[in-house]
Amino acid sequence: MKDAEINMHEEMRRAFALLSGKWKLEIMWLLNQRVYRFGELRKAIPGITQHMLTAQLRELEADGLISRTVFAEVPLRVEYAITKKARGLGPTMEALTAWWNEYGRSVPARSGGRGRKAKA
């Protein structure tokens, strides 16, 4: 049996899968700034539904990229934070910011935005 070779294409597909999903990068961007409560995240991301936000948060938590802290208070308080593992993506976020600052104005704006309209 040959030594196991690392297939970087497959490894990168696994990495991309961690952040794939319509809203995951936006959620990670926000949590990289500070800790958020569920309602704050929902208000900060126009067009996301409660169901979709819940699903995306659960996936990010299962992958170890965010942490969920429940406070035994009435009413119940839940906070989401980025993990140390996800902070390792900091250079990637910085590179994306630098790229956008240089080329973002050349990207055509999309009309209508994404997802459903947020309820007022």
Automatic annotation (TrEMBL):
<feature type="domain" description="HTH hxlR-type">
    <location>
        <begin position="10"/>
        <end position="108"/>
    </location>
</feature>
<keyword id="KW-0805">Transcription regulation</keyword>
<dbReference type="InterPro" id="IPR036388">
    <property type="entry name" value="WH-like_DNA-bd_sf"/>
</dbReference>
<dbReference type="InterPro" id="IPR036390">
    <property type="entry name" value="WH_DNA-bd_sf"/>
</dbReference>
<protein>
    <submittedName>
        <fullName>HxlR family transcriptional regulator</fullName>
    </submittedName>
</protein>
<dbReference type="InterPro" id="IPR002577">
    <property type="entry name" value="HTH_HxlR"/>
</dbReference>
<dbReference type="GO" id="GO:0003677">
    <property type="term" value="F:DNA binding"/>
</dbReference>
<dbReference type="Pfam" id="PF01638">
    <property type="entry name" value="HxlR"/>
</dbReference>
<keyword id="KW-0238">DNA-binding</keyword>
<keyword id="KW-0804">Transcription</keyword>
